[in-house]
Amino acid sequence: MSVRGFTNSVGVLLLGALIAFALLRSGELPTTTGSVSDLPVIATAPVERRSLSAKVVMRVQPVVEIREVTLPDGLGGVVTDLELRPGSEVGNGHHLFSLDGRPVFAVEARFPFYREIHYRDRGDDVTQLQQILVADGESLEVDGVFGPATQRALEGYYRRRGFEVPRGEGGGPEELRVLRSEIAAAEAALETSRSTLDALRAEQPADTASIARAEADLRGAEMAAAEARTRLAESLLKSGAILRPGEFWVRLGWNDRPAKVVVKVGDRVTPGTVLWETGNGVSRFKAMVDRGTFELLMTGDRATIEDLPGVGELEAIVEDPVRAVADGNGTDSDLVPVMLQARQTVDLELEAGRTYRAVVKAESTSGEVLVVPLAALTDGRESEVAVTVVGPDDRRGERSRLVDVTTGVSAGGFVEVAPLVDGDLIPGDLVVVGLFGGGPGEGG
């Protein structure tokens, strides 16, 4: 017997079918001295071989999920500026708020930044930063090295958003003063070497040994001046743009629309602090159905929710009906709740009170099977249910017979059946589905 979709049919005795069976087992149709209209009429239907698929159509309402967005690890401080507004979009590259005077940007990337990135640093995090900057419009080679070009690109990222880029400590004022003094001394020595060489070359006769020494001295002075300039440049670059991980809030995707902003300027926030709530995320849908429909459904049944605004169709499955009843407190009503769990969470522009059409594929047969109308079922001898087959039977020489069957999927007024004895029921056999007519007070 089917475990669902047929529960209410098990053990049902169709009075007309029993009467017909009793009459037909006698081998004679009932006779009457009255008019032809007094004769009972036996209604039959053929046994068919086809597939069945049970579908349940219902109206569902989105269950809005209130999601809290909290401050991630690595961030904290006093909120000094707040760009978040209820209903405003939060997207990649947006300035969200400032903590202790420094901006926090929403950034789409694969993994959070875990360290400060300084001049000449290398690694996958540098590569990720360069990819972010390129996506923001910078022309930059993605090579995983945080060099001058990447520093300039990072400065541009901040500048376009109205902020100053953070900078490294580099050399302090005293170090820079010493380095600039070294450059001045090296350039003075370089100029002296050039003058000496020029004077020696102008003498006649030329002193080749003195000229060779002067040329060597000039090359040394040029190298010393170049090294002094490099040291100053390195010190300046070390005090150039750096990345602070706390200013890039990294997530795989940013597509939030706060329904309620919880924090305000002046609040001190730490990791885990709720910043805002978003309320358009929907992944569950609720329907109220009668108990007969409820009996057709089973956990995991596939469903399609149709005509969702901005989404179209959404695939879902039926949640545990028992849990849905418990959650919905529907046990004291003629209607019980059914919950559909979507395969993904979607953001919907919700309209108050609006419902959507959902189609649940409750059950189906695996290919073609024997089917009869539900009305053909009666009590069985060896099984709980049976069907009454009528008409000439060359196989057994009987006018009518009771065939014990088991049942399976039911849909559209038909039910899958299988005879307990192979061959007892075949396509084309006629089964009794009712007895109608007869005189006053007669018939079924």
Polypeptide structure, described:
The chain is built from 7 helices and 20 strands. It is of the alpha+beta class and 444 residues long. A hairpin with a 2-residue loop joins strand 5 and strand 6. It is elongated and about 145 Å long.
Structural class: alpha+beta
Question: What's the helix count?
Answer: 7
End-to-end distance: 27 Å
Give the proportion of residues in helices: 25-40%
Succession of helices and strands: HEEEEEEHHHHEEEEHEEHEEEEEEEE
Q: Tell me the name of the CATH class of the largest domain.
A: Mainly Beta
- Taken from the alpha-carbon principal axes, the silhouette is elongated
Overall CATH architecture of the largest domain: Beta Barrel
Please count the beta strands (DSSP E, at least 2 residues each). 20
Q: What percent strand?
A: 25-35%
By CATH, the topology of the largest domain is conserved putative lor/sdh protein from methanococcus maripaludis s2 fold
Radius of gyration: 43 Å
Which spans of ≥5 residues are poorly predicted at pLDDT below 50?
1-36, 440-444
Major beta-sheet overview: 8 strands, antiparallel
Q: How confident is the prediction overall: mean pLDDT? A: 82
Compute the number of structural domains.
Answer: 4
What is the topological layout?
Layout: H1 15-25, E1 40-46, E2 48-50, E3 53-70, E4 77-82, E5 95-99, E6 102-108, H2 124-135, H3 148-160, H4 173-202, H5 208-238, E7 248-251, E8 258-261, E9 268-269, E10 274-290, H6 291-296, E11 302-308, E12 312-318, H7 321-328, E13 335-347, E14 356-364, E15 369-373, E16 377-379, E17 385-390, E18 400-411, E19 414-419, E20 430-437
Parallel strand pairs: 6-7
Antiparallel strand pairs: 1-20, 2-15, 3-10, 3-14, 4-5, 4-9, 5-6, 8-10, 10-13, 11-12, 11-14, 12-13, 15-19, 16-17, 17-18, 17-20, 18-19
Helix pairs in contact: 4-5
